[in-house]
Amino acid sequence: MSSHATPDAGATGRKPVTLHRLREMHAAGEKIAMLTCYDASFARLLDDCGVDCLLVGDSLGMVLQGQPSTLPVSLEDAVYHTRAVARGNRSAWLVADLPFGSYEASPEQALRSSVALMQAGAQMVKLEGGGWTAETVRFLVARGIPVCAHLGLTPQSVHALGGYRVQGRDEAAAATLKRHAAELADAGAAMLVLELVPSALAAEIGAARPDLITIGIGAGPRCGGQVLVLHDMLGVTRGRLPRFVRNFMAGAASIEDAVRLYVQDVKAGRFPDPELHGY
Ligand SMILES: Nc1nc(=O)c2c([nH]1)NC[C@@H]1CN(c3ccc(C(=O)N[C@@H](CCC(=O)O)C(=O)O)cc3)CN21
Ligand SMILES: CC(C)C(=O)C(=O)O
Ligand SMILES: [Mg+2]
Q1: pLDDT tens digits, residue range 127-186?
Q2: Is the overall model pTM greater than 0.90, yes or no?
Q3: Has 104 been labeled as part of a binding site?
Q4: I want to staple 53 with a disulfide (CB 3.0 to 4.6 A). Which of 11, 34, 104, 221 is the partner?
Q5: Are 72 and 86 in contact (CB under 8 A)?
Q6: Contact between 208 and 181 (Cβ < 8 Å)
Q7: Is there a contact between 235 and 250 (Cβ–Cβ < 8 Å)?
Q8: Domain covering 19-277: architecture
Q9: Are 35 and 227 spatial neighbours (Cβ–Cβ below 8 Å)?
Q10: Which of 46, 59, 128 to probe ligand 2 with, by most ligand atoms within 8 A of CB?
Q11: Is 39 helix (H, G, I), strand (E, B) or coil?
Q12: What does the record note on quaternary structure (predicted)?
């Protein structure tokens, strides 16, 4: 064992996943595996299993708190779970959702909320919305805060959208989505979550902006990476699940095996299957 071992890498652990490394992976065509994570124990497990990115999603409102939507999640809630995940994580890239009401009023409000998440251990913040968020994205990026955008089904707008429905289905909506993606990329967003959009549209957005790392959830296999809600892919969530979910615990001998299978299947392009999970 070298006496010059870097302090960040554990004895057997990988090097920390940086934004630079994610861009290298994306440029080389390596798919990025992301999962939501809300606590220290799962953070350590997911990191050990090679998950590239952990997302402290505001889905925690539904999954952990039993809320009917993500709207009741507070910035305090997000900070609390980001702290926990940051303590358990060793090397995965840590993204935290800006909750509903914590960033919409102004770029300054978004900065204050983002500072709270970054001080809790996040390395990137994620916010939902189209072109109107570009000014805020530019403001945060200029101040050293990496930003992930989120288009398509944006659950914080569920009441305006009229339910958790596929977005960008007709030609006009698809054109708007493409324009918003370009505006967010121009504003400096490094990553873009595409949720519940037709696979062909997600592929087009990614092809138009190779500088933007697209992460799909119900957006088909031709994205730069994939994300799922942890409790969904582990078969913990009860009730009817979105079509894009696969239960990786089915046939797996352990949670670690299921998570490793997810990472392998994302990297190999085996998940998602366009027939089973696509729109
Ligand atoms: N546990 C959990 N998993 C999620 O993926 C998730 C959350 N919670 N909470 C926030 C949002 C809500 N999400 C949802 C919820 C329902 C559908 C759904 O039922 N979609 C239909 C498609 C409808 C259509 O065709 O327009 C489906 O069958 O997939 C999709 C995404 C995704 N997010
Ligand atoms: C599902 C992902 C993209 C998310 O925003 C969340 O978990 O809150
Ligand atoms: Mg979210």
Answers
A1: 999 999 999 999 999 999 999 999 999 999 999 999 999 999 999 999 999 999 999 999
A2: yes
A3: no
A4: 34
A5: no
A6: yes
A7: yes
A8: Alpha-Beta Barrel (3.20)
A9: yes
A10: 59
A11: coil
A12: Homodecamer; pentamer of dimers.
Measured distance CA(89)–CA(121) in Å, rounded: 10
Report which ligand 1 atom has the smallest distance to the Cα of 231: 1
DSSP string, 218-260: SS-S-SSEEEE-HHHHTT---SPPPTT---TTTT-SSHHHHHH
CB 232 within 8 Å of CB 51? no
Q: Ligand 3: distance of its center to the CA of 11 in Å? A: 33
Q: Quick check: 148 and 124 in contact, CB under 8 A?
A: yes
56 SS3 class: strand
What are the helix (H) ranges across the chain? 19-27, 40-48, 60-63, 75-88, 107-119, 134-142, 158-161, 171-186, 199-208, 230-233, 255-267, 274-277
Annotated binding residue at 77? no
pLDDT the model gives residue 13: 82
- 223 within 8 A of 247, measured Cβ to Cβ: no
Block residue for tokens 């993606």: 181
Q: Residue 100, SS3?
A: coil
Whether the Cβ atoms of residue 54 and residue 93 lie closer than 8 Å to each other: yes
At 170, the amino acid letter reads D
**58 annotated among ligand-binding-site residues:** yes
Residue appearing with tokens 């500088």: 211
Q: Do 46 and 91 meet the contact criterion of CB atoms below 8 Å apart?
A: no
pLDDT digit string, tens, across residues 86-138 = 999 999 999 999 999 999 999 999 999 999 999 999 999 999 999 999 999 99
